[in-house]
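The instructor's notes for this session suggest beginning with a concrete chain rather than abstract definitions. Hand out the sequence below and ask the class to guess, before any prediction is shown, which regions might be ordered.
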Amino acid sequence: MTDDDKQQQQQQQQQQQQQQQKQQEKEEIQELLTFFDNTTASSQPAVLSVDTLLHNLSTTCSPKKIFESIVPHIFHKDPKHQQAAETLFVSIISHKPLWLSDAATVMLSYVRSLTQEKGLDSSDSGIKEESSRMIHCIIFYPSTLKLMISQMSHTSVSIADLFSTTLETLCLLQPDEITDTVLDMLSSTLSSTSSSSLSSPMAMPDDATLMIRYYTLYFKIISAPTIKNNVNAKYQNVLMKPFLKALENDQDPLLQMGLLEILEQTSSMREDFFQNWCEPELDRALLKMVGQQVVPTQQHPCKKVQIQSTGSGIGGSGGDFHPFCSGAALRLLAIREHYQFLDRNDFVQVLMDYGGRNASAGEVEKIGFIDGITTFCCHFDNSDDNSNRNSNVDLILQNQELLNEWLTLRMGQSKLKAVVMNSVARVLEVKELLHSSRLELYQMIGKVNDVGRGEDTTQIIMQYVKGQVVELRLAAYGILTAVANVRMGAHMLMKFGGFFEFLCNRNLEIVKEGKELKYGLVMAVWNSEVKGLLADDIVRALEQVVLDGPFYVKQVRDVALE
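After discussion, reveal the predicted structure:
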């Protein structure tokens, strides 16, 4: 027998051994499930024999393989078989707590596989047949579901996140049936004051970490596109009471920051969430954080609030700002304003008071004011006509005091100057706003920052784009590109003396990100209407810059002289 024959024979033996091992593991797992099927049918306490059954498994059968064999049976169509597998799953975790991480990983992997098979997503009708098997597990035998919710209080963040993601995925698969069950359990969990155990979830409303985990899951579920608004309304009263109570608790600022972050993430994913949240207590809590007092009006107690401040206008002296949450609260108020929880004019007064009292404050407060006014200008409802979409920006453009606070570049910190330019660029990029208003906002930078030398906006921005501070250069590229994408914006830039030469000069910018941003500016000018009005030699020069790309380097040849 040759060496090749021996090697081939050894490989065949190894393959046979592996197949025998897999078959043995499969038979052992099936033995467990059969045992639990029989004991469940005879109503015997099967959980007492888990240690004995696990001891009989071979040492080569890892916890992950055990759970990979059990988890599919949890979603079995036969209720008795499903209940037996579920009992076994919960019992093994009870006896082997260290296996919990493997159980969570396998459970999430299997649930995700229901949407990943054949490239289906959670909204595809093709998964209905597969996901329908989970109805028995979730509604009739919810032990596994209770286990997953209870483990969201686990000390290990990774384990808690695995079970939270699994619950979220389950709700996406069966939004009508499973969502109600999950939210019912979350409601009882948040309203409970009992201590934790494996079978009953830990729900201490005063525990900041748990509240953040539970509410993160809740808002992810209700913000999903497949969830109807009536689901949000159904659980709003129960779930929002402890939420608002925690939001008003100034003794735990970290919890307040976490809850505000959850609200911002939810509003970015699904704006209509706030349409059904008619909750003046939220407005009161948010306005308090920005130094305002609020009292519901008699006419519309659920939709309108009346702002009362001890100071008015820029430089007023209202209540104290929240030291950590005022910026986030201002951004959320800017979003809620659009749904008439606040009047637009009232929110402008809040901005004036906030910006004025922060004029001499720190960097964080100033950035919070800029974020708030930017969100206010960019936010609108798609159902609005063009005039209503532009109303927020028009209100700001009519208020010189706010413009002075927002657009000033005369502060010493480079970071704040960059924040201002990025803020204006963000508003200019909103294509739904009127072109005239966007150009007017751009021109206001020159009017606010001119110190009597007759400088316009482009002249001021060009000083930064040619400067040595990288942060300011990058921000200047952004605002120039944004205005070049506005109708007639590129015309305004090309009329500035030296702007064309600046575009064609590839030696000024040395930073990779700066080269990319400058090339984006060139492309914005090249794709604008101004190209049709330029001379042929200028068009050819711009075209060459476009063809050369952002990282073009002119080659210099050295001629050797004798």
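Then share the key points. The chain is about 65% helix and 0% strand. The beta strands are 293-296, 305-308.
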